[in-house]
Amino acid sequence: MTALFALATSVLWGLADFGGGLLTRRVPALTVVVVSQSIAVAVLGALVTATGAWSEAGPQLWFAVAAGLVGPVAMLAFYKALALGPMGVVSPLGSIGVAVPVGVGLVLGERPGLLQFVGIMVAVAGVCLAGGPQFRGAPVQRQAIALTLLAAFGFGAVMALIAEASTTLTGLFLALFVQRVTNVAAGGLALYVSVRRGTPALPAEGFPWRALPALAFVGLADVAANGTYSIAAQQGPVTVAAVLASLYPVVTAVAARGFLSERLRAIQAAGAGLALVGTVLLASG
């Protein structure tokens, strides 16, 4: 069950990243984050009310608040790093955030077997290569490296925090709701500051109503991924769940190949293959 839910997480995050990447070509990134997460808040609010999840409120929700604060910071740092480039270095480097939840699992006493340890190494290498690392070309600015590492730590911290925010299914609904409300509040504040500095919040043609279904998909897929990861981390070793959930760059690359006809570079194809081998090793171990 751990492998199943963790792989579902990677698929959902990969598709959400793919959709978000397409949307940010037409709509400012902060607006995409705020609108998509606001839709997720509305849906989660209905779920919380329908299931009576308010009764699950407790101190553990502070983990959800922390995840909600860290998430937007990590995403903005990642977008800024991508803008500084080169993307061929920034993108795969951002995937090392998986070290955070894996490290938490090891500190808590988890000890993967030899086969699983090999699977972790192979899968992480595959994820990094699937991003298409650029070994030659333009030099990388120190600021881009620093921002990427900040984003990677933030992404990994969100995975670790949300896994601690609930112990039941209804509690998970409430934790995700709190996380998303915090996301919207933090993202909305950042958007307000951005607009005050003269950056437009909307494209020239106004609010992208036609993109509303896509925005809803991005927000709901992202929150569903957080939910499936939390379940995966509770069902089995965090070290396994985190690595399998981190395969989402492979999903994004495959989606770009399927929907946009983008050709995978040889190194990306090799990375996808290694990630698959690592997945098999982790699942069988």
Low-confidence runs (pLDDT<50, min 5 residues)? Answer: none
Main structural class: mainly alpha
Order of helices and strands: HHHHHHHHHHHH
Largest sheet: none
Assembly context of the chains: single chain
Describe this protein's structure.
It is a single chain. The protein has 285 residues and is mostly helical. The protein is built from twelve helices and no strands. Helix 2 (29-51) packs across helix 9 (212-235), helix 8 packs across helix 9 and helix 9 packs antiparallel against helix 10 (238-245).
Describe the SSE topology.
Blueprint: H1 2-23, H2 29-51, H3 61-84, H4 87-93, H5 99-107, H6 114-130, H7 142-163, H8 169-196, H9 212-235, H10 238-245, H11 248-260, H12 266-284
Task: Offer a few descriptive terms.
globular, mainly alpha, 12 helices, single chain, 285 residues, 0% strand
Quick overview:
This protein is mainly alpha-helical and 285 residues long.
